[in-house]
Design a protein that fits this description.
alpha+beta; 2 domains; six-stranded mixed β-barrel
């Protein structure tokens, strides 16, 4: 018999009251749907965690950072030219400087990290515009008071709104006696509230113009390093290694992955482990389907006997019941992906409303759910393979039935 005929016979035997609409078949199918949905959600969350962290790093700190080991000033244009010569695919760059201080507003104080960025280049190098929650990311607008961007967590903690002015107290080292510090106060106007992607950034970082930061901190033309942008984030690691070789020991080069290497490694290790653990649910559901097909074989003794009597071969009987298992697997797979997608949407909604993700623990305030093509293929292959293996035993049981014995029992 051809495959279409065998598939039609499998379908007719499957949708009868004895099989699909009676006994344990609906529960077995529902278990398979839950197993696939659990696998879809777990893989989507793991992939989303990785992509969210990557996006935060590249949007806020660039693809690659070149940090100076020396505090003495140098010609940054010459450094940029060396970088561009070594990596012609460089899109843009901006200098940056870090200055620690204490923010004071409405009787509240908080330790902050002020980040000075070149206002003429920052929007070409970083993707701050897409992360603005309130106000604007443009630091070049004319203003009597220096403009600043702050993380969303810091804005909430200090009760700041766009247009408010706040003060930052900076310790300035005494050049004649480094053990003594002078106090300097900088006044800034809030230009925008930014969702920086990482919990500690949202709680601490203030972004201002590089020139303002140098002036307030009294460091002249010195800067911490340069942030570089490459169109291909995956190429950043190769570019980082190459620049480290070219620039040498006076500079420390790191890509977006280096500062969170442990988190990315943890995701890489946990992904296959979680896939295997959650797949156990599919194993259990698939063997529930196997037991359902065993019962179906017993109930179909007469039908199987008639099929064998009219010339259906043992191999074809195996195919008939194998098709039934694969049909149930396909239905469970489709239902699982639909349910998994719905659960992913619910997870995204619950993050904002219920605070499921603790930023202090996971270093991210929220996670974008990402269903990758590779994960989808792996789930499909694993599910159908498990269902196929689970159907072999009942299919062989049906094929071994003696036609005369089956008719006699009826």
């Amino acid at each position: 018999m051809n495959r279409s005929s065998l598939a039609w016979i499998s379908w007719k035997l499957l949708i009868s009251k004895k099989t699909m609409f009676g006994g344990s078949a609906p529960l077995a199918l529902f278990g398979l749907i839950l197993g696939v949905a659990s696998l879809v959600v777990s893989m989507a969350v793991m992939s989303g965690f990785e992509s969210t962290l990557q996006s935060a790093m590249t949007d806020v700190s660039g693809s690659v950072q070149v940090v100076k080991r020396s505090r003495f000033p140098d010609d940054w244009k010459e450094l940029e030219e060396r970088i561009r010569k070594a990596e012609p695919s460089l899109v843009s760059s901006t200098r940056f400087v870090f200055v620690e201080g204490i923010m004071a507003h409405n009787g509240q104080i908080s330790g902050v990290l002020m980040e000075g960025l070149d206002k003429d280049r920052v929007n070409q190098t970083l993707n701050l515009g897409s992360r603005v929650k309130e106000g604007s990311a443009d630091l070049s607008e004319p203003s009597d008071v220096p403009l600043a961007l702050i993380g969303s967590g810091l804005a909430k903690k200090m009760g700041l709104k766009v247009g408010d002015e706040f003060r930052v107290v900076l310790p300035i080292a005494d050049l004649s006696d480094p053990s003594n510090f002078k106090r300097k106060v900088g006044v800034f106007k809030l230009q925008g509230v930014v969702e920086l992607g990482k919990f500690e950034w949202n709680e601490r970082i203030i972004m201002i113009d590089l020139g303002v930061a140098q002036e307030v901190a009294a460091i002249g033309d010195r800067y911490t390093g340069m942030m570089l942008k490459f169109n291909d984030a995956d190429y950043a690691r190769k570019a980082s290694h190459n620049l480290s070789q070219v620039l040498g020991s006076p500079y420390w080069v790191r890509d977006w992955r280096d500062s969170n290497e442990n988190l990315f490694d943890a995701v890489a290790v946990q992904r296959p482990a979680i896939f295997f653990v959650v797949s156990v649910i599919i194993f259990v559901a698939a063997f529930n389907i196997s037991s359902t097909l065993f019962v179906n074989v017993v109930q179909r003794f007469k039908d199987i006997a008639i099929l064998k009597t009219v010339g259906v071969s043992r191999k074809d009987v195996v195919k008939i019941f194998t098709f039934q298992g694969l049909i149930l697997g396909g239905v469970g797979l489709a239902g699982g992906f639909i349910l998994g997608f719905i659960l992913c949407l619910m997870f995204k909604w619950a993050q904002g409303r219920l605070g499921l993700i603790s930023g202090a623990v996971y270093r991210l305030d929220s996670i974008e759910v990402s269903i990758r093509f590779v994960d989808t293929v792996a789930i499909c292959v694993a599910t159908m393979l498990i269902c196929f293996i689970a159907t072999l035993a009942p299919a062989r049981r049906g094929a071994d039935l003696n036609p005369m014995g089956g008719l006699r029992n009826e």
